[in-house]
Sequence to fold (97 residues):
Amino acid sequence: MTTYLIEIPHSENTAECQHVIKLFVESGSHLLSHAYWGCKSGVHKSMFISEFNNKEEALQIVPPFLRRNANIIELIKFSNTDIQQFAEANKQQGVVE
Fold:
């Protein structure tokens, strides 16, 4: 399975923040218990990290009324070998570090 970050933005209006939370509660979405909210830091998004088979499956977990604004981001980790290969490729292409 692949790990995805799901971001669901909303406006900075306090009433909208509360409305989005209410929509999650009313939808019965289990995501609410796993949500991170950036509102206190001025980043008005709810965020989740979870594993899915594909991007479409990740989007289906978002309540329908919030899907159009959702960002689904595939997350990967680079190994030390990957990083070394990138550095070598950059050297060969003349990219200055």
About this structure: The mean pLDDT is 86. The chain has three helices and four strands.
